[in-house]
Amino acid sequence: MQNSIKPPSRGQWGSSFGFIMAAGGSAVGLGNIWRFPYITGQNGGGAFVFVYVLCVLLIGLPLLLNEIALGRKSGRNPVGAIKETGGSGFWQTAGVLCVLVCFAVLSYYSVIAGWTIGYIFTELINIPVDFEDFVQTPLYVIPLCMLFILMTISVVLGGISGGIEKAAKFLMPVLFLIIILIAARSVTLPGAGAGIEYYLSPDFTKINGKVILSALGQAFFSLSVGWGLMITFGSYLPKTNNVIQSSGWIAGMDSMVALMGGLMIFPALFALLPGVSPDEGPALVFNVLPRVFDQIEPFGNIIGGMFFLLLLVAALTSSISMLEVPVAYFIDERKWSRKKAAWTIGIAAMFLSIPSSLAAVKGNFFNQLGFNFFGRQIAGFFDLMDFFFGTLAIVIICLMLSLYTGWVKNVKEYASELAMGAVSFDGFPKKAWVFFIKWICPIVITLVLLNMIGVFGEPGEGG
Ligand code: PHE
């Protein structure tokens, strides 16, 4: 079973650069620019950033390699990969969870992407928007979200390589440049110092269980690890590819953009909106950035419009990969056509996005919906989805996948898979990776999960 040949119909990446761009395009998205700053704000600033960087290096990167190894070795989608390598039904549920997570997150991710589309226009035409009013107007928000899902479907229908990959190769670097420009403006505003300090000097007393779970969850969200995405993309890799080098690029790019994202927001927040608290949640970026654009003379609004346009592209390169995972599953395992799979799943995501859109409207049912998870209060449909799918399920998937390769299978085979095409991985790095997958990753994730359900006391705080 294990060494069976890939079916010839499966494609392969043309070049390492193509793979890095596709996987990097998936990684860099709203998670870096919208989610990272607000999660940082909710978890105390610098201390969170510190824990986040550790999570990326010590847990995220080994697991990224783990997924790529599983994908390249099996040449399959997340469920197929575990089946193909001889995993039982229990382990296959990790693959099923991957498919579910991608579908569920796509639905609320598109809501934010829809806001982004709205902001392209309001910036360009230079109309001041009140964010609170905007998101509470379903008449704008729902159609914009649907439009975004339609764009996602149309790309997935046509295959990824032609249009979007070419476009992303050009547009992503432009996005990086604009981010640097905005961050430069932000840090030079009078009064920016307090924000820089909040963001970059860690107050270690703020680190608790909740901060660690959030940092770990954010690392997985942002790196696209724990979604089966890297299994799927890894399955299109030739054995000659140096996956160690590619992963370094992906993680490096992703972290740089996230760190720069924070550098755009916090200095500007403290300088321009001293009354607004950094922990205000998903609205953060949308409240702060338009104020920064107002401070860029001349053409601030054009730069603002361009920024949101490029953010839309970054979101699209992520959402297509999110849709691609369930689509690949239905094509491989259920023998659906690509057309049927993309439309069916896309339209289902449209329906599921509606309650997430409505969750922003104060006082309505989806806004009021609450849930108490072992003392952690989760409010609103949107947060519910982000907690259960965008955080908890991903962490569980990562735990299962590390136990699977680390203990159920012969982990050395997977280490050798990684070393294929990457000679420098042999020796110490290989041993270190095995140690991380067998011990560090499962232990840390288990502790975080146990802490979340209150095993170490005080679930509300620790969760
Ligand atoms: N990593 C993406 C982001 O940061 C989200 C994503 C996860 C996209 C998994 C695809 C698959 O926005």
UniProtKB/TrEMBL annotation:
- Cite a single Pfam family from the UniProt record: SNF
Keywords attached to this entry:
Membrane, Symport, Transmembrane, Transmembrane helix, Transport
**Highest taxon listed in the record's lineage:** Bacteria
Its membrane topology: Multi-pass membrane protein
Q: What compartments host this protein?
A: Membrane
Q: Which residues cross the membrane?
A: 12-34, 46-69, 90-117, 137-158, 170-192, 212-237, 249-273, 302-329, 341-361, 381-404, 435-457
One Gene Ontology term, aspect cellular component: membrane
Which InterPro entries does the record cross-reference, listed alphabetically? Na/ntran_symport (IPR000175), SNS_sf (IPR037272), YocR/YhdH-like (IPR047218)
The Gene Ontology terms for molecular function here are: symporter activity
Family statement: Belongs to the sodium:neurotransmitter symporter (SNF) (TC 2.A.22) family.
Under what name is this protein listed? Transporter
Which organism does this sequence originate in?
Answer: Cyclobacterium lianum
